[in-house]
Amino acid sequence: MTFAAHIIAFNQQLHFTGKLPAGIRVMNPFREGPGIMDIMTQFYQKFYNDAHPRQLILGINPGRLGSGATGVPFTDTKRMWEKCGIAIPGLKTHEPSSVFVYDVIDAYGGVEAFYRQFYISSICPLGFTAVKADGKEVNYNYYDSAALTKAAYPFIVSSLQEQLKWNISREVCYCMGTGKNAAFMQALNEKEKFFKKIVPLEHPRFVMQYKSKTKDIYIDKYLSSFEQYQ
To answer: CA 132, CA 24: separation in Å to the nearest integer?
Structure first.
């Protein structure tokens, strides 16, 4: 099977069976979003239609405006069209994290070079949302409550085990998020021995929200880390 075939099959069968805390729901873009399965399939067939080995980059969990809209992590509809050449009629999303990630991709050498070397996924490959008092639905991370972390843990482990059956390097895993996400991944890796090394990198959302004026420093950090472990 090609790398694309593995990813597409994995995304098609994603299903969360754990018992969620009150007020939290699962966000599965592949089941909820019209046309997302097709867009996701186009993307992976375009950039992963081979058996080349990849290094793994893990985010937190899907958000509504990134992979929640396209089926591809850190890729909003604007980047999907402008950078990847895949149009999404009738839907426009702009996600700051996607801006940063594609700045990194451009600095690395562009989408073809980047996606040949790396596969971006999430520690938890399905997202979560919560409803605020005003009725607004917002993103909710797997680590935002101990109860949700506990509920999601078996799903997180089994999802990573499945992905690591593919041609993914176990030498290093890059973790987007130097706080709770990295702490969770480090502890998980100590227990499960998935990778020889976890390399935490600042989360794109953190960079764009708090460090946007100096984002070039963080782009350079990503590139330096990639170079160090290739």
So the answer is: 11
Q: Which amino acid is at 221?
A: K
pTM of the model: 0.94
Q: Nearest to residue 151, comparing CAs of 117, 122, 128, 177?
A: 128
User: Tell me, what's the pLDDT at 182?
Assistant: 97
CB contact set of 151 (below 8 Å; sequence gap of 6+): 18, 19, 20, 21
Q: What percent of the chain has pLDDT over 70?
A: 99
- Which sign does the torsion angle of CA 216, 74, 206, 202 carry? negative
Q: What residues contact 97, with CB distance under 8 A and at least 6 apart? A: 63, 66, 74, 203, 204, 205, 208
Domains in the chain, please, with CATH? Answer: 3-8+21-228 (3.40.470.10)
Q: Quick count: other Cβ atoms within 10 Å of Cβ 38?
A: 12
Other Cβ atoms less than 10 A from the Cβ of 54: the count is 18
HSE-CB at 151 with a 13 A cutoff on CA atoms is: 20
Question: What digits encode the pLDDT tens for the residues 106-164?
Answer: 999 999 999 999 999 999 999 999 988 888 888 899 999 999 999 999 999 999 999 99
Q: What pLDDT does residue 92 have?
A: 85
